[in-house]
Design a protein that fits this description.
Structural class: alpha/beta
CATH architecture of the largest domain: Alpha-Beta Barrel
Largest sheet: 6 strands, parallel
Strand content: 15-25%
Distance between the termini: 33 Å
Shape: elongated
Radius of gyration: 23 Å
Number of domains: 2
Order of helices and strands: HHEEHEEEHEHEHHHEHEHEHEHE
Number of helices: 12
Number of strands: 12
CATH superfamily of the largest domain: Aldolase class I
CATH class of the largest domain: Alpha Beta
CATH topology of the largest domain: TIM Barrel
Helix content: 40-55%
């Protein structure tokens, strides 16, 4: 589970409050209070599942008496037509919980599915896909959980998870070396977490390695530049390619020999997958 218990309770409470408001007027007006429904959640396209237990907890928050059978665990790839969950219980409560449960499951599974597509493009190499902090505010833990279900490695969760010296830091202090020296002198975090430096040029990469960087973030470099960096620094520092990576380009980037590729699109631009809740008469 990606969230601590209290985080999960708070997330579900806010999710349901946002969707239900003072009550599901349509359901209350049309469905008899004692009606019982059986339903199935069905994958309507190929996808990787993420968030199935969160969907179940949303349903049980609305009504703990609803019978829920989870048929597919997170991280599993399913094809269109697969049943991923079965429900049986009070019709009003199932209908009330439906949209919130589906929204979360569809969005997280969409991230996991797009992530898996990127991972498959580079699985012939030792390169690992990384996510980024390009996420919807307050949704980061869930989004990064979904990328992990898709096969990616999590990059830093927050700004206090790592030291990443970027171009604006370098511009502010005057040079790559000055930025690295300042980070090393800041405290123990630099030695325990490591220092990553964003490099736009091979000259910056050389300066960063000589100054004691632990990883280079090779930003928007051509494949020829990446190969040059790999030939010089592979094994000495971690090498991460980043910047405008797409499904069309990630394979050739991985083939240069870099250790990691970070992709913002897997959390920024992943479309929700199509999952339906179909009722059984």
């Amino acid at each position: 589970m990606p969230l601590f218990k209290e985080e999960l309770r708070s997330f579900i409470r806010m999710t349901l409050d946002e969707d239900i408001g003072r009550g599901d007027l349509t359901t209350l007006a049309t469905i008899p209070a004692d009606n019982i429904l059986k339903a199935e959640m069905n994958a309507r396209e190929n996808m990787v599942i993420a968030g199935i237990e969160i969907a179940e907890k949303i349903i049980h928050t609305v009504d703990p008496a609803i019978k829920v059978e989870i048929l597919v665990q997170d991280g599993v790839e399913v094809t269109a037509g697969n049943v991923i969950m079965r429900l049986e219980g009070n019709a009003r409560n199932i209908l009330t919980a439906e949209r919130s449960a589906l929204n979360v499951l569809q969005h997280l599974s969409g991230i996991a599915t797009l992530t898996r597509t990127y991972v498959k493009e580079i699985e012939h190499t030792e390169c690992r896909l990384l996510d980024t902090r390009k996420t919807i505010p307050m949704f980061r833990k869930l989004a990064k959980y979904a990328t992990k279900m898709g096969g990616a490695m999590n990059h830093r969760m927050r700004l206090d998870d790592g030291i990443l010296i970027k171009d604006n830091h370098i511009a502010s202090v005057g040079s790559v070396k000055a930025a690295i020296d300042a980070a090393k002198n800041y405290g123990s975090d630099a030695s325990t977490i490591g220092i990553t430096v964003e490099c736009d040029t091979l000259d910056q990469a050389e300066e960063a390695v000589n100054a004691g960087a632990d990883r280079l973030l090779l930003d928007n470099m051509s494949n020829d530049m990446l190969r040059d960096a790999v030939s010089k620094y592979k094994g000495r520092v971690g090498l991460e390619a980043s910047g405008g990576v797409t499904l069309e380009t990630i394979k050739s980037i991985a083939d240069t020999g870099v250790d990691y590729i970070s992709v913002g699109r897997i959390t920024q631009s992943a479309p929700a997958v199509d999952i339906g809740l179909d009722y059984k008469v």
